[in-house]
Amino acid sequence: MDQTESFDVVILGSGQGGKLLAWHLASLGKRVAVVERQWIGGSCPAVACLPSKNEVWSAHVAATVRHAGHFGTVTGPFSVDMAKVLARKQGMIDRDLAAHRAAYEASGAELIMGTGSFISSDTLEVTLNEGGSRRLRGEKIVINVGTHALIPDVPGLRAAIPLTHIEALELDRAPEHLIVLGGGYTGIEMAQAFRRFGSRVTIVEQGTQLLAHEDLDVAEEVLNILRTDGIEVLVGARLTCIEGRSGVKIQAYVQLSSGPRMLEGTDILVSVGRVPNTAGIGLEAARIAVDDRGYVQVDGALKTNLPNIWAIGEAAGSPQFTHASFDDFRIVRDNLAGGNRRTDGRLVPNVVFIEPQVAHVGLRERDAQREGRKVRMATLPLARVMRTMATDQVAGFMKVLVGTDDDRILGFTMVGPEAGEVMAVVQTAMIAGLPYTSLRDAVLAHLTFAEGLAPLLARVPPRAAG
Question: Residue ranges of the Pyridine nucleotide-disulphide oxidoreductase dimerisation domain (predicted)?
Fold first, then answer.
């Protein structure tokens, strides 16, 4: 065994928060090691956020061509070349990988490709991908190991070798009939994309609605959008058994309220949740506390139960978005420099990149009702936003929640084109603590989708008298 090597900071996992922290600390002269098992830069640039949105955009182009005649552009027969879709995505990944390697070299942080496991509270044993091992001791250690797709314990499902988002993004073909298990963010993004690539698609969602965390009116609007795209959506559908093999032929047996049904498909994509990558990394040996689902327990400063160890990103239970991990980096960075930054009360937005987009920030109507919070609410159908007169993109709506005792915006949701960009305008106002009237009375550019904020906010009921 090689002699133990000492570092100021050892980071287990090179995802968004971890790599940024490594580059920052190394640039300050700290000796930093990053242990990465597979994807330099984490899953986002390699197999998740960027690749999926790359292919979603290719699907958008296919849909634009398919419907070009509506806008006066006459096209002949066309087809989707999935090999080129895959090549375009891979080119982006390769460029990003080169940028990550350059950033490591420029910062001075050492990237170690291998699988790390705690052998004590300050030391990791790393089994190197190229063979051999190294033992690393860190004055400070940061856990940044992320999550992986959950494969539920359904008879025949594992034997069918189902797709997760990782394998789905490697397909150089459009499945003849793709069955998507799960109606969450990733499931519906992939469902719509492959439908636009030419696949027949069926979504099987066990819950009573799509997008379980969203308000019912949002879920119903998305359901209508997907069905308009020609996607079959089954809600309240429990998968009971799978026969066959994904990529060849499968039979999926589901239980509906109306009775059992059998679906015949060629491929199945599983997107029903995530599991933290904390098993088998020696947390027990280091006596690092985890919750009953395996997530590392942290306080608002992202510190574990041990004074020298932090955890960031999805494995620490942070919202499963790259921008949340980025904020985790800033929290640990500032606190290591003597600050007192915390996750408590932070405003984390989210966007579902179907077409049209679904964007949300702040309080939801369902949460306000559950908590017994009184709010003022207003909605605006997207057809009332003037830009839709030029684009014909009328599906969707905007919704805002405002406090009853003051005029602060508490939450905003939009289903519509560029919803994420419009949401960012509202989020900025929320961060600034502006009254909703400031946006309502602002001079917003014409013709934009953000212009719809004025008529939306004009619908907010006045405060109760007295």
Answer: 348-453
The structure's pTM equals: 0.96
* CATH classification (class only), 5-148+275-336: alpha beta
Which CATH fold topology does 356-458 show?
Enolase-like; domain 1 (3.30.390)
Annotated binding-site residue? 273: yes
278-291: average pLDDT: 98
Q: Find out whether 182 is annotated in a ligand binding site.
A: yes
Q: Say if residue 53 carries a ligand binding annotation.
A: yes
Q: What is the pLDDT of residues 198-233, one digit of tens each?
A: 999 999 999 999 999 999 999 999 999 999 999 999
Q: What percent of the chain has pLDDT over 90?
A: 98
Write the secondary structure of the chain as one string of H (helix), E (strand) and C (coil): CCCCEEEEEEEECCCHHHHHHHHHHHHCCCCEEEEECCCCCCHHHHHCHHHHHHHHHHHHHHHHHHCHHHHCCCCCCCCCCHHHHHHHHHHHHHHHHHHHHHHHHHHCCEEEEEEEEEEECCEEEEEECCCCEEEEEEEEEEECCCEEECCCCCCCCHHHCCECHHHHCCCCCCCCEEEEECCCHHHHHHHHHHHHHCCEEEEEECCCCCCCCCCHHHHHHHHHHHHHCCCEEEECCEEEEEEEECCCEEEEEEEECCEEEEEEECEEEECCCEEECCCCCCHHHHCCCECCCCCECCCCCCECCCCCEEECCHHHCCCCCHHHHHHHHHHHHHHHCCCCCCCCCCCCCEEECCCCEEEEEECCHHHHHHHCCCEEEEEEEHHHCCCHHHHCCCCCEEEEEEECCCCEEEEEEEEECCHHHHHHHHHHHHHHCCEHHHHHCCCCCCCCCHHHHHHHHHCCCCCCCC
Residues designated catalytic: 446
